[in-house]
Amino acid sequence: DPEIIDGNAVAADVREAVAGHVETLAAADVTPGLATVLMSEDPASETYVSMKQRDCEEVGIDGIHVEIDADAPASELYDTIDDLNEREDVHGILVQLPVPDHVDKRSVLRQVDPEKDVDGFHPENVGRLVAGDARFKPCTPHGVQKLLDAYDVETEGADAVVVGRSDIVGKPMANLLIQKSPVGNATTTVCHSRTEDLDEKLGDADLVIAAAGIPEFIDGSMINPGATVIDVGINRVDADTDKGYELVGDVDYDSASKVAGAITPVPGGVGPMTRAMLLYNTVKAAGLQRGVDLDLD
Ligand code: NAD
């Protein structure tokens, strides 16, 4: 049987560590603050933001939430970000994506003060990550790295395949895995929608990171026996449940878990880690801005 990589357990450890950093900050008279900005009526986005606010409360981070009408002019969002950039009680700013079509996402990401950019999406922070001098690692790939570390998955010299090349998961994930650093040093292949023979690439992989957003499309027959399988996918599929749907990963868990050496479930794998790493980045931001050394990566 494969080792089941328990994201809830590792995320709880991260939150406990974060709560300790909150105490260290409190001793220096600093209460970390995270601002979330929502410009959308999408119910999923609303849920994500309220979860993030609840997570903050649980560890002693001040949550500040701003909502902007989805049909308001883009300038309203820029002005809001400018205000939050100036506020001393706000150390982290997160603009919930996606923003409406009439708002240019890239401009929004550039507007956030890079020292408050706890998502790590500002080009300055993307550049620093690629250069091996990350300030804020994006939450999902950072969370995956913490999972690999917690379960002593050997990445050095391993053949890793990242499936997906998005700016928020695939690209930063691959960049972390190739770094000359702990939980890095992997020989990393990035696959995407134009990849010709995914089966062949996966067949040689010691480590698979699935982030394509396609329900259960990687099955056991594609997995190299003994490989570590990290399933980032969170996909809604119709199901006979109260809500009328259920969440499944990009990996077909039943067949993949018969061949994998270790595997993350969905839910309960990467999802809780993403949430925990946002808190981690927020205390890191507060420490950096207020000169409190917390020694975080
Ligand atoms: P995205 O839609 O931005 O990117 C999907 C990527 O998959 C693209 O780069 C595309 O080239 C690639 N792809 C599409 N079809 C493919 C195929 N047949 N073979 C190989 N690659 C293919 O998605 P995203 O934002 O990176 O998210 C990916 C998945 O991860 C989604 O299910 C999303 O819900 C989930 N997600 C989970 C978390 C978490 O916390 N667990 C965080 C972010 C995203």
From TrEMBL:
SUPFAM superfamilies: Aminoacid dehydrogenase-like, N-terminal domain (SSF53223), NAD(P)-binding Rossmann-fold domains (SSF51735). NCBIfam families: PRK14167.1. One of its GO terms (biological process) is purine nucleotide biosynthetic process. InterPro entries: Aminoacid_DH-like_N_sf (IPR046346), NAD(P)-bd_dom_sf (IPR036291), THF_DH/CycHdrlase (IPR000672), THF_DH/CycHdrlase_cat_dom (IPR020630), THF_DH/CycHdrlase_NAD-bd_dom (IPR020631). It catalyses: (6R)-5,10-methenyltetrahydrofolate + H2O = (6R)-10-formyltetrahydrofolate + H(+); (6R)-5,10-methylene-5,6,7,8-tetrahydrofolate + NADP(+) = (6R)-5,10-methenyltetrahydrofolate + NADPH. GO terms for molecular function: methenyltetrahydrofolate cyclohydrolase activity; methylenetetrahydrofolate dehydrogenase (NADP+) activity. Homodimer. It holds the Pfam family THF_DHG_CYH_C. Pathway: One-carbon metabolism; tetrahydrofolate interconversion. NADP(+) binds at residues 164-166, 234. The keyword Phosphoprotein does not apply. Its EC number is 1.5.1.5, 3.5.4.9. Catalyzes the oxidation of 5,10-methylenetetrahydrofolate to 5,10-methenyltetrahydrofolate and then the hydrolysis of 5,10-methenyltetrahydrofolate to 10-formyltetrahydrofolate. Belongs to the tetrahydrofolate dehydrogenase/cyclohydrolase family. Keywords: Amino-acid biosynthesis, Histidine biosynthesis, Hydrolase, Methionine biosynthesis, Multifunctional enzyme, NADP, One-carbon metabolism, Oxidoreductase, Purine biosynthesis. This is Bifunctional protein FolD. It comes from Halorubrum laminariae.
